[in-house]
Specification:
Shape: globular
Helix content: 40-55%
CATH class of the largest domain: Alpha Beta
Distance between the termini: 69 Å
Number of helices: 29
CATH architecture of the largest domain: Alpha-Beta Barrel
Radius of gyration: 28 Å
Strand order of the largest sheet: 12-11-10-20-19-18-17-16
CATH superfamily of the largest domain: Glycosidases
Structural class: alpha/beta
Number of domains: 3
CATH topology of the largest domain: TIM Barrel
Strand content: 5-15%
Number of strands: 20
């Protein structure tokens, strides 16, 4: 048992911190004191004055905690389980104690983070942390017993590695895993280091696949999955770096009590070298996604079972195992377009049966994780197919992760939550799923009130007895922090969540108690607009602008539950008001990274919706042949984009250049890594253009803005000729030239980014320039606008 003594220049008491012997308890103690050093300016003391009063902080199971339990000063319930904990301040025998203890060391870590958050008002966020200054260690009314509502709380989707984390080093990964632990997630999806394992598997069957035959980042998850010539090549040195980093990530997560699920794979895909070797002696399937086609081993071929078992053994040997393995179900792909319905059902049953048998033979304690994403796509997975597929699997050995925001897509898929549509997954255990942000959806969105209702409904539904928790998924991370903060709390205990209290709590943890009342007003305006819906309409400058988009009734996803451009105009008054409220604190909080990120987020959303409004007006003037209004709107659009560039350039968080520099600095990184990143953010190898779009300064200035200017120029030329006919082929050719110039060339550095590090000036100037008059705000409320 380790004892550490600290004194503070501001606190009139000395702090005696006592830890248990377990590694995680020691880690929890270090975390506790790390924050205390920042909040109280405490310093370790070797020679301690006996005159000073002391507070004994007991973290975990140690002789102090055990003595207090024995003497009945503290009660540690027997039903805390692994994750429950107590946080309690008491006075015993004239000494003050603060007890932070869990039913296990993991529970103790949760106790520490809970105390720091609830009583010290520390804010744990994905972009930064808020650490207040305190005069005393809080002990008044500290008495908490917490247990989770559900045993499983999963975080992170494998595809995030292609769209968000490709440039991360250990520093960024450690921060992310710590964030997950602080928010009490206990399951994560493994990082993409398994390519090195697959090469060992293929070599076991006599096929040597060089790393350069596979795709490197940011197309990591697509390596051998969809197209054999995806690039950049996966250099062996970089592959080893990714592998070592993955092992470090997995091992650290396990030490914090987080379990890892093996990498997600649709089925047994094979690279070209493997197919060429076995094409005449094994049965393969062609499986298509978008315009990509891959070869999969048929589940009825003996090679399928043999390879699966080798993979399980090699993966466990290389990375260890938490006995959580993906169950292939083809994701968004149709495994057999030419097959009859009966044959498709049998194929799906076969892949479940063969995978289950092989997995249990190697790992008798295995649980198969079934990706629920595909089940929402009725074209590929009718209800009877899902029922037949799941019927193969014993209840105790499967989990269905519902990974679709199902209520977003009623017309194409389901008219009610997916778990209800599929009869609560026919009695199999499942997790309530949230796939909130697809690759380019970094705009402010997410129905906060609706999400609370949705989780509470599942929590209270007697038919949902097999719901074991929530699965929080996304393709892009570190945006919409409020939504993920809320989901973490809902996953732990939805019954205690109230939106009004949550907003107050969030504001205090993110900005501090003094600024919080003003920022609550700001958040309420966002809740009344962008955070009242799951609509994901982006600023149209992020897309290749086409005439069909420029109608007031245009819907980005063409779904009844989503909003038209005219309906989204009603958000503009709320966004302007939210920005005006938040800017009241620009002098007080301008040095806060959290405040900076949020103001830029609100401002870029405001400008983005303004852009959509004015580009529609510009096109309307074009169709009417109204040159005067057209030029007026063209100038306004240029001003909006210039202001957007200005605010984005004021903060590195919204700049692409630092990301490219960090990516290229990774050990043995591909030489064209920067080009591949710019590729996936724009054309996606000409397959999914503008899917992974973002509001990065450089992307806006050197690609999006140029495309918009090209579109306006094209319309102007047509106006001059007296025609309203748009030449789509010419426009597309021009867009392509701009995109390839952006991808292939370094960013020009002409010194015009004058607002870099001038956040206050940038946001103030943007707001003053673009705030609407009362009359203009009223116009935004007209649906017909």
């Amino acid at each position: 048992m380790k004892q550490m003594i600290y004194e503070s220049s501001r606190m009139n008491k000395k702090l005696v911190c006592i830890s248990g012997e377990n590694w995680l308890e020691k880690h929890a103690t270090k975390e506790f004191m790390r924050y205390m050093r920042n909040m109280l300016d405490v310093k370790p003391k070797i020679a301690v004055s006996n005159k000073m009063e002391e507070i004994i902080v007991s973290i975990g199971r140690n002789r102090v905690t055990e003595s207090l339990i024995k003497k009945e000063f503290v009660a540690l319930p027997n039903d805390l389980g692994e994750e429950g904990f107590i946080v309690k301040a008491i006075k015993a025998n004239g000494i003050e104690y603060l007890i932070l203890c869990g039913g296990s060391p993991k529970g103790t870590l949760y106790a520490v983070y809970h105390y720091l958050e609830k009583f010290c008002r520390v804010g744990f966020f994905g972009d930064e942390e808020y650490i207040p200054k305190l005069d005393e260690i809080p002990t008044k009314n500290v008495d908490v017993l917490e247990k989770p509502r559900w045993p499983e709380r999963q975080y992170l989707l494998s595809v995030v590695y292609s769209y968000s984390t490709y440039w991360w080093s250990w520093k960024e990964w450690k921060q992310e895993i710590d964030w997950a632990a602080k928010h009490r997630f206990n399951i994560m999806s493994c990082p993409p280091g398994a390519t090195i394992v697959w090469r060992k598997v293929w070599k076991h069957f006599g096929v040597d696949v060089p790393p350069t035959s596979l795709s490197g980042p940011p197309f990591l998850m697509f390596a051998s999955a969809h197209k054999w010539d995806l690039r950049p090549p996966f250099d062996e040195g970089f592959q080893e770096f990714i592998d070592n980093l993955s092992r470090k990530i997995i091992n650290y997560g396990r030490k914090l009590g987080i379990k890892w699920v093996s990498p997600a794979i649709p089925g047994l895909q094979v690279p070209k070298e493997f197919y060429d070797t076995y094409r005449d002696c094994a049965c393969f399937m062609d499986v298509k996604w978008c315009n990509f086609s891959s070869k999969y081993i048929h589940p009825n071929d003996p090679l399928y079972t043999s390879m699966w078992k080798i993979f399980l053994k090699e993966y466990s040997k290389h990375y260890g195992s938490d006995h959580l393995w993906w169950l292939p179900n083809f994701f968004e792909m149709d495994p057999g377009e030419e097959l009859s319905d009966h044959e498709k059902i049998n194929l799906k049953k076969d892949i479940a049966k063969k995978t289950y048998e092989a997995t249990k033979e190697v790992d008798p304690t295995a649980i198969l994780i079934c990706f629920g994403w595909t089940f929402a796509i009725k074209k590929f997975w009718p209800r009877k197919h899902v029922e037949a597929f799941l019927a193969v699997l014993p209840k105790k050995d499967v989990r269905v992760w519902e990974l679709w925001e199902d209520y977003l897509f009623p017309s194409k898929r389901v008219s009610q939550p997916l778990y209800k549509d599929l009869n609560y997954y026919f009695g199999k255990p499942w997790l309530l799923g949230f796939l909130h942000s697809f690759a380019g959806e970094t705009s402010l969105h997410g129905n906060l009130a609706g999400t609370i209702d949705r989780v509470k409904e599942a929590s209270l539904d007697p038919k949902a007895a097999e719901c074991l928790g929530i699965a929080v998924q996304m393709e892009v991370i570190h945006h919409n922090h409020i939504f993920y903060d809320l989901l973490a709390r809902l996953g732990w205990n939805p019954d205690s969540i109230d939106l009004k209290y949550f907003l107050k709590d969030y504001a205090e943890r993110r900005y501090g108690k003094v600024p919080a009342p003003i920022m609550i007003q700001c958040l309420e305006e966002l809740v009344a607009s962008v955070y009242s819906t799951s609509d994901t309409t982006s600023p149209l400058y992020q897309l290749r602008i086409e005439p069909d988009m420029l109608r007031p009734d245009f819907k980005y996803m063409r779904e009844p539950s989503l909003l038209t451009l005219a309906e989204r105009n009603k958000f503009i008054p709320h966004l302007q008001k939210a920005l005006a409220i938040a800017l009241q604190l620009v002098n007080e909080l301008s040095s806060s990274p959290l405040y900076q990120h949020d103001i830029i987020d609100i401002c870029r959303q405001f400008l983005g919706d303004l852009f959509n409004l004015h580009i529609v007006w510009l096109y309307d003037a074009f169709k009417k042949g109204d040159d005067t209004t057209f030029e007026k709107e063209a100038r306004k659009i240029e001003e909006i984009l210039e202001s957007q560039e200005m605010i984005l350039s004021s903060n590195k968080y919204f700049c692409l250049k630092p990301i490219l520099e960090k990516a290229k600095a990774l050990p043995n990184a591909p030489k064209d890594f920067d080009k591949r990143i710019k590729d996936i953010l724009t054309i996606w190898i000409d397959e999914i253009p503008d899917y992974a779009r973002r509001d990065y300064y450089e992307l806006l200035r050197f690609c999006y803005h140029k495309r918009v200017s090209t579109f306006i120029k094209h319309l102007r030329e047509k106006l001059d000729k007296g025609t309203c006919e748009i030449d789509r082929e010419t426009l597309l050719k021009c867009y392509h030239e701009i995109e390839y110039e952006f991808i292939d060339n370094p960013f020009p550095s002409d010194g015009t980014e004058k607002y870099a590090s001038m956040f206050k000036e940038a946001v103030t100037k943007a707001f003053e320039k673009h705030q609407l008059s009362e009359e203009e705000l009223k116009m935004c409320l007209c649906k017909e606008i």
